[in-house]
Design a protein that fits this description.
Layout: E1 6-10, H1 18-30, E2 41-45, H2 47-56, H3 62-74, H4 86-102, H5 117-126, H6 131-138, E3 143-150, E4 156-162, E5 169-171, E6 174-178, H7 183-189, E7 199-201, E8 204-208, H8 218-222, E9 227-231, H9 252-283, H10 287-292, E10 301-305, H11 311-317, H12 324-329, H13 344-347, H14 351-367, H15 369-375, H16 377-380
Parallel strand pairs: 1-2, 1-9, 2-3, 4-6, 9-10
Antiparallel strand pairs: 3-4, 3-8, 5-6, 7-8
Helix pairs in contact: 1-3, 1-14, 2-3
């Protein structure tokens, strides 16, 4: 049986990405015992990029990689991601306010709600970037992509490190550039605009990869994926909600949450729907006709796993874990997660919330064990 190159798509979503760790942990439990990496190609965005690169750095031993990733998330606290002390938050707020009112004092002043220097220090310590090339050379990994958004060019840029046969690509508003993945790429990919500071890579400043990411699945396909697993963080995906009655003017926290949902969730759901539609179309065209007409189209097997319950509601249950300084920065709203527009679920890097998300991901993936086994059927073939 031919083993198709399997791509893993890890979407962004701040603290929501803890859910992905639970799903990956369950996949390791379901697959045959061994140390191999079941994902040839990994494409990550924002916090999903952090998970992806951490996993890629342990591609030679997937079991240890999963344990390492879980250990990181299970011991998270908000102050490991951004400054939560009153002075740190106040200083960021002051710079942001000054920039909005009178402009920046200096050309290189950062403008953001929060200071995520603690995250940079943590990633520098726990992610083994030098291991990635070794995994590629050994064949344990075909490619890893970290997706960012260029603030000057307006392009979605996929920085990738992979097999020598992979070429750069360029499409409308999206490009792929061969790079050696570094800490700056991760910090740029997770730089949520106005919340975390943008990062300069070469000649341009970059922000969170979810911004203007029109086709989240495409980097993995460009890197050679023949089937794709998507681990989303939307929560009860594709389920239409009743339109609620507004009782008051939306708070800044609610509006920010709405914008984050639009950036992190909507494009992934749209692209997955588009791929399913293309698959249905391709399946109706006989292979002989496709060959005769020179149509370079093929169906891409897809498995999508999303949270079975609302992550906003889950975040609300852990609202008491939010740092007081952050609560002040959000306008005194300890829980701005109502009506699916919560910023809390993106910023609540607390141990309790992350553990709940990991447990939910593990449970959701185990309940779909048959689908996962079918998706990885070639891995079970003797």
């Amino acid at each position: 049986m031919d083993v198709k190159k399997t791509g893993l798509i890890l979407s962004g979503g701040g603290a929501r990405a803890a859910y992905q760790v639970g799903v990956l942990k369950a996949i390791h439990k379901i697959l045959p015992k061994g140390h191999y990496n079941p994902f040839d190609i990994i494409s990550g965005t924002s916090a999903g990029a952090i998970n992806g690169v951490a996993l890629a750095s342990y591609a030679d031993n997937y079991r240890i990689g999963i344990k390492h990733l879980e250990r990181i998330w299970m011991h998270f606290s908000c102050d490991q991601i951004y400054r939560t002390d009153f002075w740190g938050v106040s200083a960021s707020l002051a710079r942001l306010t000054r920039s909005l009112v009178i402009g920046r004092g200096y050309k290189n002043d950062t403008v953001s709600l929060l200071n995520n220097q603690p995250l940079r220090e943590l990633l520098q310590e726990v992610v083994k970037f030098d291991n990635i090339q070794g995994a590629i050379d050994s064949g344990a990994l075909h490619a890893i992509a970290v997706n960012c958004s260029g603030l000057e060019s307006g392009e979605s840029v996929s920085f990738f490190q992979g097999h020598y046969s992979i070429n750069n690509w360029q499409r409308q508003r999206r490009v792929g550039i061969r790079s050696r993945i570094s800490l700056d790429h991760l910090m740029a990919s997770s730089a949520i605009p106005m919340i975390f500071p943008s990062v300069k890579i070469h000649r341009e400043y970059f922000a969170d990869g979810a911004v203007r990411q029109l086709a989240p699945l495409s980097p993995a396909l460009h890197l050679g994926a023949e089937k794709i697993m998507v681990i989303g963080v939307s929560g009860i995906a594709h389920k239409r909600k009743e339109r609620p009655q507004s009782s008051s003017y939306p708070s800044p926290a609610k509006m920010m949450g709405h914008m984050l949902n639009a950036a992190f969730l909507d494009s992934m759901e749209t692209d997955v729907e588009r791929l399913r539609r293309i698959n249905r179309t391709v399946d109706k065209i006989p292979e002989s006709v496709r060959k005769k007409e020179g149509m370079e189209l093929k169906s891409i097997e897809l498995l999508e796993i999303n949270p079975s319950r609302s992550i906003d509601e889950l975040a609300g249950q852990h609202a008491h874990e939010i740092p007081r300084a952050l609560k002040l920065a959000l306008g005194g709203s300890g829980n701005a997660s109502q009506n699916g527009s919560g910023i809390l679920s993106y910023l609540l890097f607390s141990r309790g919330f992350c553990k709940s998300l990991i447990d939910l991901g593990f449970q959701d993936a185990n309940e779909r064990e048959d689908e996962i086994r079918a998706f990885f059927a070639d891995h079970f073939h003797d």
